[in-house]
Amino acid sequence: MKIIGIIPARYASTRFPGKPLADLGGESMIERVYKQAKKSKALSKVVVATEHKLIFDHVINFGGEACMTAEHHPSGTDRCYEALTLQKENFDYAINIQGDEPFIEPGQIDLLASHLDGQTQLATLIKKIDTLDQLHSNSEVKVTFNTRNEALYFSRAIIPYLQKVAEKDWLKTYDFYKHVGMYAYRSDILKAITQLEISPLEKVESLEQLRWMENGYTITVAKTDIETMCVDTPEELEMAKIYLKHQQEQKKSIDSGKS
User: In the CATH hierarchy, which fold is given to the domain comprising 3-251?
Assistant: First the structure.
């Protein structure tokens, strides 16, 4: 399979304007994401898709590949499709890599890619929920799936509801999963889903993947054990800086132990 990794990077973020260019330990957030994606063994190409020339120029300056896309796209999926149409090569699949996850592991991309066999329409990652705080958070999207690892439903609510179990024992009784927002699209399916009207379930849950499911498309889920860190606000950027510093100190400690 020939797979392209596309990183949507929008300058005009409501909660954090200019977020892709934010400095994180001497490198921009988008540069960190790009470099991590380039380490993936499964991707034939990685490109940043942006609506802003500052981001485009920045990516080119650090040696990356980028393309200019329209300003009006309602989602990263739509931006990914335009970016795919701008490529001179043909790709079997496109993987949408979140531009605000600077610590993304290349292995997560490779894991998702391992489920792309030409028959898979859409695929995404999920992770087991470890805490009750995660389970109750409306920002953590929960997912249920069938025995073929195909998503049955995504929700901001807790799914499933354990009717005869005390809430404090839910995580001991059942394995709940949350959605990790990296998508793989077969190229023809990506074109098709961007033509769909907003669906009732998508509207009430504010989750675009429900539109695809309501229209009969199948989403394969792949389980990852790796926790991700999404940076949506300036406050979360400060948390990311602390995490990066901790990572760097750990590496120094390991390296000094080897010498």
Answer: Spore Coat Polysaccharide Biosynthesis Protein SpsA; Chain A (3.90.550)
